[in-house]
Amino acid sequence: MDEVQVVVAHSERATLRVGDVFLKVDADPARLDAEVEAMAAAPLPTAPILWRKPSVMALGALPGKALGRLGEPSPASPAAWAAAGAAARTLHDAPLPARPGRSADSRVRAELESECELLVACGVLPADVVARNRAVAEAAFRAFTPAFTHGDLQITHVFTDDDRVTGVLDWSEAGHGDPMFDLATLTLGHEDRLADVLAGYGTAAEPDAIHAWWSLRSLLNVRWLAEHGFDPFAPGCEVDVLQSRM
């Protein structure tokens, strides 16, 4: 009998795997509605929807393997990473969805200021690491042309086979937003792969904004990850990303 594997689980949503079937459970049915809509609109291969209930969706497995995992060396080839970059560009060139996605605005700036204060006050990170990354993160607060973004383009969500993208998972955060956020999420903790991704993406990339999003995303996520059972201090993960800016 196939065992039940917990892929991810926290108070908002959980994903379970049983054999080649993934069950996605979301506390907000409207978020699943938005994910289904984004999957239908995306110009990239997505996992097949086997069935759908108000708060649960069953998805079939994608062919190929994920690009890798955060904190571990990626087994994927440079060509596979370039293909992921090209896929991101295809998505970003698609017609905009109605739903808003990730971007750095005044609300995010206020959240960042508060989070930086807490990281230092609670002794989670040294003040100099926080200050340096806060300075780097400032480049994310810039004018940009909104694009159709995935919103959570982690390497575990991008599957490739024979150096081509066979599918992209988890469209729950998709919407119109900053395309450099997607590229930063894809390469977080794998800075050595950025050149490969940009080779596939093309000249529209903004490296300074990608670097800024590495710092911004990591600063905002460290405490949340620790409070929800993840380890941002693991080798190659968010704290290492922040320390690498020093």
Report the biggest beta sheet as strand number plus sense, adding barrel if it closes.
Answer: 5 strands, antiparallel
Q: Strand arrangement, largest sheet? A: 1-2-3-5-4
The shape, in one word, is globular
What's the gyration radius in Å?
18 Å
Quickly name the level 1 CATH class. Answer: Alpha Beta
Distance between the termini: 49 Å
Secondary structural class:
alpha+beta
Total domain modules: 1
Number of strands: 10
β content, as a range?
15-25%
CATH superfamily: Aminoglycoside phosphotransferase (APH), C-terminal lobe
Please describe the topology of this protein:
Elements: E1 4-9, E2 13-18, E3 21-26, H1 29-41, E4 49-52, E5 56-60, E6 65-66, H2 78-92, H3 106-121, H4 127-137, E7 147-149, E8 158-161, E9 164-168, E10 175-177, H5 179-187, H6 194-201, H7 207-227, H8 238-243
Antiparallel strand pairs: 1-2, 2-3, 3-5, 4-5, 6-8, 7-10, 8-9
Can you put this structure into words, describing what you see?
This is Aminoglycoside phosphotransferase. It comes from Mangrovihabitans endophyticus. Pfam families: APH. The model has no long low-confidence stretch (mean pLDDT 93). This protein is globular. Helix 2 crosses helix 6. The strands form 3 sheets. A 5-stranded antiparallel beta sheet has the order 1-2-3-5-4. The protein is built from 8 helices and 10 strands. The chain has one domain: Aminoglycoside phosphotransferase (APH), C-terminal lobe (Aminoglycoside 3'-phosphotransferase, Chain: A, domain 2, Alpha-Beta Complex). It has 246 residues and is an alpha+beta fold.
Key terms for this structure?
Aminoglycoside 3'-phosphotransferase, Chain: A, domain 2; Aminoglycoside_PTrfase; 40% helix; Aminoglycoside phosphotransferase; five-stranded antiparallel beta sheet; 246 residues; alpha+beta; three-stranded antiparallel beta sheet
